[in-house]
Amino acid sequence: MAVNRKVIGQSLPRPNVMSFIKGHGKYLDDIIVPGMLHVCYVRSPYAHAKIIEINADDALAIEGVVKIVNGKDLLEYCKPWTAGLTNLGEMRSAPQHAMPPEIARWQGEAVVAVIAETKAIAEDAAELVEIDWEELNPVTDLQKATENDSALIHPELESNVAWSIDIDAGEVDSALENSDIVVEKVFEVGRQTGVTLEPRGMIADYDRGKSYLTLHHATQVPHIQRYIIARQLGLSESSVRIICPELGGGFGLKLHVYGDELTTCALSMMLGRPVKFVADRLESFLSDIHARGHRISAKVGVNKDGQIQAMTLDNLAGCGPYLIHPRTSVIEPLLVAICTPLAYNLQHYRAKATLVYQNKVPTGQYRGVGMPIASLVAEGLVDAAALACGIDKVEIRKRNLHAVDAYPVTAVSGEFLEGLSQVASLEKLTSMMDYKGLRAEQKTMRDKGIHRGIGVVTVVEGTAPSPALYAAGGAPISSRDACTLRLEADGEISCTTGLTDQGQGGVAIVTQIIADTLDLSMDAIRVSMGDTATTPFGGGTWASRGTAIAGEATLRAAKAMRASILEVTSMISEQPVDILDLVNGEIVNLETGETQMSMQDVGQAIHFKTHQFPEDFEPEMIITRHYSQREQLMVYANCALGVSLDLDINTGLVTLKKIWAVDDCGRIINAKLVTEQLRGGIVQGIGSALFEECLYDEDGQLLNGNLIEYLVPMAGDVCDIECAHIETPTKASELGAKGCGEAGIIGVCGAIMNAINDALEPFNASVTSQPFTPAKILRALGKV
Amino acid sequence: MSELTQTVDVCITLNGHSIKATIPARENLADFIRHRIGLMGTNVGCEQGICGACTIRLNGDSVRSCLTLAAQANGHTVETIEGLTDSGEISQLQEAFHRNNAAQCGYCTPAMLITATELLNSKTEISRDKIREYLSGNLCRCTGYHAIIDAVEEVAEAQNNGR
Ligand code: FES
Ligand code: FES
Questions:
Q1: Is the Cβ–Cβ distance between A499 and A466 less than 8 Å?
Q2: Among A431, A454, A440, which residue's Cα sits nearest to residue A383?
Q3: What domains does chain A contain, in order, with CATH numbers?
Q4: Is the pLDDT of residue A330 over 80?
Q5: CATH of B88-160, one of 1.10.150.120, 3.90.226.10, 2.130.10.10, 1.10.10.10
């Protein structure tokens, strides 16, 4: 059935975006459930400390306080969990409680819940809860944590090392020996956090009569959360319903298991009343997952002509006191290890990673997961090699990218790359940014004392993971998704899917695929998401999987719906099905050109006028189709990214001039939305590169846990971002779409580092510690 | 406890309606608008005056409602996204945001529209840099700002052409 593409590929406005623009977005804190109580958490002021005694008498005495609950009270309501995956080597992991009954292991861990009639009362009372603590030795420094005399966060594990990995491909040592030049660098990537503008939150509403827990939960993954929450609380999955409100950002932050959220559920069960929890900004910094926090020693061996012979890296990363549930904190260092060499054609590669426990906020999956670090390391090494060889930085990439005709390629770390357009993307990028012109301009600017830096990177972005990543290791994580379509009696289409939309445009993508396949107006399609009681089970939104996975399920459902509509029309009109087609929302006889039936006629026929049907004819008009990508660990997309910036060598300040990106995410459903995903990711990555770091002292106290001191990019900090697209559809699905949500954040950190170092070249200086702050730049220049 | 329980009487003109209420003296304007009146279009992102998500209009100026006590608005005029949407005053900018996909999650959007409108209403020369500077008190974690700047610039140009 040849589909005449009318809507797929169009940069149409998102159908649901006007409601946000009018202020109608309904987020978690906008929801009021009658009889709702509010919970405020008392959090540990210490990174590692034992609870000796809790005195809540004064707090309880405040009018309006309903109950005060601690970790011991919670034991009979909520089981502890132990995060782990079995498919990625040994993980040493300890049980985590929703609130610890005995020992708090990071500053900010919730230890007491104060429930009151209003949030203000709960906050006031929380301040009156007195806790007697016995301070324990905090484990904070990565290196010291691995040493034998270090204090242990979990003595029963006998070590602070949570996990390690060793990849050794080819003959690394001899390849390095045979290289003309070996460049060595140490890269540091500071700890960051996601900073969704809307903090985490939930309303738990337990109905004791029905033993049924309804959750309004700001989560990216309602079906996965439901499974886990039910299991921890001892409920059956079918007695938990999660309804996602609109989310004010996700970025991976809103898909982990958080103790304060599970506690909120347990409190509602305890009290039989709805309980609302909304984190404030200060709590967010101390309780939302952190990410990154890696130190990588890396080497690259090249021949004089710039040909990469071998690469090695040794990564020491920190993960907080627990592996985050259910995905574990291992995936970030894992992806650093497997993704660093992906862009380039080399045969010899070694990667080691050691992940150690620390008394800091647990780390977890935040947009890009490991890949921004991998790209920073790879692209930093390649630029350093170019400099050492005296080769242009674009040229060295051209010499090392996988050849255009080499695909499919198995990269040296074992990853399958089905088809990328790296060379074409790089060429398009350099012409878009006028790379030669920029280089010439850089020279003349230098003569005038203006230090312009140019950075170019080639990015490989892992998207749309298969079950091999998590589910094969035993984690309850669905990499599958589904779409259910229903033809209504008025001829319109209702759609539900397991996907969720935090503004990426999932609703638009799904609507466009349906409109295209059924040749129907987008106005005749309504998509709803996020309610586990009404949507088909699916993985939700993470790892740039929405369009690639749920999009394909939608295409399959829409094609089946199309066939069903034509079959019904054929039956009623007594015309052969193969001369019927859907055209502009009507079913047309292709031979006569006449409209045979309208969509509404079909809707009326199947829902009301079934007397027209032969006896054994029961057409399906609620159609569900599933898809899971099982061919590749991830479907790899690619991007080329360029940065131009000015560096003030007296202040160390970086001024971004312009950023360019050429992205290839396979089949494009809506290029505008791809562009906006790129731009959003790029600006988050600018935050990583220039500003963002969770700074801790040696006692494990977060020093800048607020938006005043933890800087995120504002409009004036960033520049225009010009984007272009290339389409290399994946063969893994009929739709051919890959993901596009992370390329920007993956590539821009390395591109900015490279551009800064490009500007620093005349001074024989370079920076490799992210964020690249003015202080670090001045230090590299020997000015401070 | 007196500072926690002290109340004040206020009369605030909110989106054209006069509202009289007895409220805790410490209640901030964001909470007043959202939780007392129930207008949820004004969002709260930090309660520290940094993110700008809570921006409303007080006597015509854009103001952070998390840093303003409701009592300070006594006798004054407050406009929120709901009022500005209903009056049609910002519809041109809203259309431009729509065309440009200048909202992703939408959490920053109402406040962004209010701040941008203030700039558009000012008599200053508007450039992309000027827009960037003016919006730098409004955090958007999703869009990367480019589309927002495009939208504001479009309206500024249309205004110029109309002049
Ligand atoms: S909530 Fe008011 S500025 Fe952030
Ligand atoms: S659109 Fe999400 S914060 Fe701006």
A1: no
A2: A454
A3: 17-25+480-628 (3.30.365.10), 31-136+201-249+253-287 (3.90.1170.50), 290-467+631-780 (3.30.365.10)
A4: yes
A5: 1.10.150.120
Span A677-718, pLDDT tens digits: 999 999 999 999 999 999 999 999 999 999 999 999 999 999
Count CB atoms within 10 A of the CB of residue B116.
26
Beta strands in A396-448 (DSSP E): 409-410, 416-417
Q: Inter-chain contact A17–B43, Cβ cutoff 8 Å? A: no
Q: Give the model's pLDDT for residue B1.
A: 47
Distances (CA, A) of A214 to A53, A208, A230, A642, B24: 34, 11, 11, 47, 32
Whether the CB-CB separation of A119 and B26 falls below 8 Å is answered with no
Which of A24, A507, A714 is the mutation pick for testing B, counting most B CBs within 10 A?
A714
CB–CB contact B45 A199 (8 Å): yes
Q: Is the pLDDT of residue A732 over 70?
A: yes
**Residue A3 in this model has a pLDDT that exceeds 60:** no
The minimal CB distance from A712 to the residues B131, B141, B149 is found for B141
pTM of the entire structure?
0.98
Q: Give which of A11, A20, A246 to mutate to test B binding, by max B Cβ within 10 Å.
A: A20
β-pairing verdict for A181-193 and A290-302: antiparallel
In ligand 1, which atom is closest to the CA atom of B52? 3
**Structure confidence at residue A224 as a pLDDT band (50, 70, 90):** very high
Q: Which atom of ligand 1 is nearest to the CA of B50?
A: 3
Which of B92, B84, B118 shows the shortest CA–CA distance to B15?
B84
Give the right CATH number for B7-84 from 3.10.20.30, 3.30.450.20, 3.40.50.300, 3.40.1550.20.
3.10.20.30
Q: Cis ω on the peptide bond leading into residue A101 (within 30° of 0)?
A: no
Contact A582, A562 (CB under 8 A): yes
Select the residue of A250, A707, A716 nearest B50 (Cβ to Cβ).
A707
Note whether A363 and A319 are within 8 A (CB). yes
Domain definitions of chain B by residue range: 7-84, 88-160
pLDDT of residue A447: 92
Contacts of A708 in chain B (CB under 8 A): 48, 50
pLDDT digits (tens, 9 = 90+) for A136-191: 999 999 999 999 999 999 999 999 999 999 999 999 999 999 999 999 999 999 99
Cis peptide before A576 (omega within 30 of 0): no
Give the per-residue pLDDT at A1: 41
A751 CA: distance to closest CA in chain B (Å): 17
Contact list, B138 vs chain A (CB under 8 Å): 714-715
Residues in chain A: 784
Ligand 1 is surrounded, with C-beta below 6 A, by: B 44-47, 49-54, 64, 66
Tell me the DSSP string of A647-669.
Answer: E-TTT--EEEEEEEEEEE-BS-S
Alpha carbon A723 to its chain centroid, in Å, reads 21
Cβ contacts of A467 within 8 Å, gap of 6 or more: A479, A480, A628, A630
Q: State the Cα–Cα distance between residues A671 and A667, nearest whole angstrom.
A: 10
pLDDT-derived band at B100 (thresholds 50, 70, 90) equals very high
CB contact (8 A) between residue A503 and residue B105: yes
pLDDT at B2: 56
pLDDT beyond 60 at A471: yes
* Residue A585: both structure tokens together: 């929302």
Average pLDDT over residues B89-112: 98
pLDDT surpasses 80 at A372: yes
In tens, the pLDDT along A247-271 reads 999 999 999 999 999 999 999 999 9
Whether A120 and B44 lie within 8 Å, measured CB to CB:
no
Cβ separation B94–A18 shorter than 8 A: yes
